[in-house]
């Protein structure tokens, strides 16, 4: 009896999800890790079929049934599960038949892959963004120095020209030098550190909605799905308004240019717990999703949307998303993008426990 209690205690303290199925593929046991992964208790799942939580693939269910009688083990890599809360999960799982009286019990071990895949993806995104910003800083320095010389020479030349009609040409040189300097400054993003105060994310969003509603003249429906439980956090409200506005304007322009039926943009907020951003885990994070029903981002541009000067529009500067990413990075957060025809989603993650000792 003591050994059985010890075995059960070990199972219940594993971080790996463990599930036992009988020969009818009904759940006999789930450890707490499995209940957390699938967002449901064993009692609730014992009354539903395996196709509702493990796989809807009929051939995979047949493989499970065959494993019961053949006694063969197998493993699936990066399989997709749907939790009872509706979230899609990427997992590795192994199936091992255990002989029991005249039938077999299937032992399923599930290891979540989402966190590892997310860490790899976000570290790559942050690395690319940091590399790009360093290149832009170096390029900006090399461009601004000669621009200053060109502008100064044009001003000196204007003073020496006796013919006033020629001043028009020196003014063109000065104005174009100023335009290039402003473009370089925009490439660098916000030049000031965030002015941290208590920020209500929904006040930020309502400000953005009022600006976008005036610009769109009612052509695009703005929907809201707010989580009122999200607390205030330390941030720069003006910079956050700019970051969100850049993304929403991009969505609005995409919807306008492609004449989408019933164009709409959804702003959704949720509080998420135990979220990994890059290599750091945060206890509580504000997740803001900006979702539009436009044509989606072309496949070849998905990996480059946060790079400066990359735009899918002929008249676009390609700076809006790069600046938005820089602003959220300064708040120790991250922006992710997922897109397919009919749905583009930008997810902004901002930790609700802010650091004050450094600003990225």
Features:
9 helices, Beta-Lactamase, disordered C terminus, 5-stranded mixed sheet, alpha+beta, Heat Shock Protein 90, 3 domains, elongated, 360 residues, 26% strand, 5-stranded antiparallel sheet
What is this structure's SSE topology?
Layout: H1 2-12, E1 17-21, E2 27-30, H2 32-38, H3 42-45, H4 58-70, E3 74-82, E4 88-100, E5 103-112, H5 114-160, H6 167-188, E6 197-199, H7 201-216, E7 221-225, E8 233-235, H8 237-257, E9 264-277, E10 280-292, H9 320-330, E11 334-340, E12 343-351
Helix pairs in contact: 5-6, 7-8, 8-9
Summarize the structure in words.
- One of its GO terms (molecular function) is phosphorelay sensor kinase activity.
- It catalyses: ATP + protein L-histidine = ADP + protein N-phospho-L-histidine.
- It holds the Pfam family HisKA.
- The relative contact order is 0.09.
- The protein has a 5-stranded antiparallel β-sheet.
- By secondary structure, it is of the alpha+beta class.
- It has helices spanning 2-12, 32-38, 42-45, 58-70, 114-160, 167-188, 201-216, 237-257, 320-330, and strands spanning 17-21, 27-30, 74-82, 88-100, 103-112, 197-199, 221-225, 233-235, 264-277, 280-292, 334-340, 343-351.
- It is elongated.
- The protein has 3 domains: 2-112, 2-Layer Sandwich (Beta-Lactamase); 117-188; 193-360, Histidine kinase-like ATPase, C-terminal domain (Heat Shock Protein 90), CATH 3.30.565.10.
């Amino acid at each position: 009896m003591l050994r059985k209690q010890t075995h059960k205690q070990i199972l219940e303290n594993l971080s790996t999800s463990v599930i036992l199925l009988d020969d009818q593929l009904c759940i006999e046991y789930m450890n707490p890790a499995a209940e957390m992964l699938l967002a449901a208790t064993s009692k609730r799942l014992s009354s539903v079929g395996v196709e509702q939580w493990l796989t809807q693939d009929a051939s995979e269910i047949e493989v499970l049934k065959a494993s019961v009688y053949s006694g063969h083990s197998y493993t699936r890599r990066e399989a997709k599960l749907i939790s009872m809360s509706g979230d899609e999960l990427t997992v590795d799982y192994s199936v091992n038949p255990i002989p029991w009286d005249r039938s077999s019990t299937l032992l399923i071990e599930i290891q979540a892959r989402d966190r590892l895949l997310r860490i790899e993806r976000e570290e790559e995104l942050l690395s690319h963004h940091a590399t790009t910003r360093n290149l832009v800083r170096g390029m900006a320095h090399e461009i601004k120095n000669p621009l200053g010389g060109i502008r100064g020479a044009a001003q000196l030349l204007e003073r020496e020209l006796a013919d006033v009609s020629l001043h028009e040409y020196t003014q063109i040189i000065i104005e174009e030098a100023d335009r290039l300097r402003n473009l370089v400054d925009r490439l660098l993003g916000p030049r000031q550190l965030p002015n941290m105060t208590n920020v209500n994310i929904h006040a930020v969003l309502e400000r953005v909605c009022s600006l976008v509603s005036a610009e769109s003249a009612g052509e695009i429906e703005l929907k809201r799905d707010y989580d009122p439980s999200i607390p205030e956090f330390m941030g720069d409200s003006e910079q956050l308004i700019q970051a969100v506005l850049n993304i929403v304007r991009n969505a609005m322009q995409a919807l306008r240019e492609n004449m989408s039926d019933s164009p709409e943009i959804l702003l959704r907020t949720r509080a998420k717990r135990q979220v990994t951003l890059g290599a750091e885990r945060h206890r509580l994070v504000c997740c803001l999703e900006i979702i539009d029903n436009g044509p989606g981002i072309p496949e070849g541009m998905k990996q480059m949307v946060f790079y400066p000067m990359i735009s899918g529009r002929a008249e676009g500067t390609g700076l809006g998303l790069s600046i938005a990413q820089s602003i959220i990075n300064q708040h120790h957060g991250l922006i992710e993008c997922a897109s397919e025809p009919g749905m583009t989603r930008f997810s902004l993650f901002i930790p609700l426990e802010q650091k004050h000792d450094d600003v990225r």
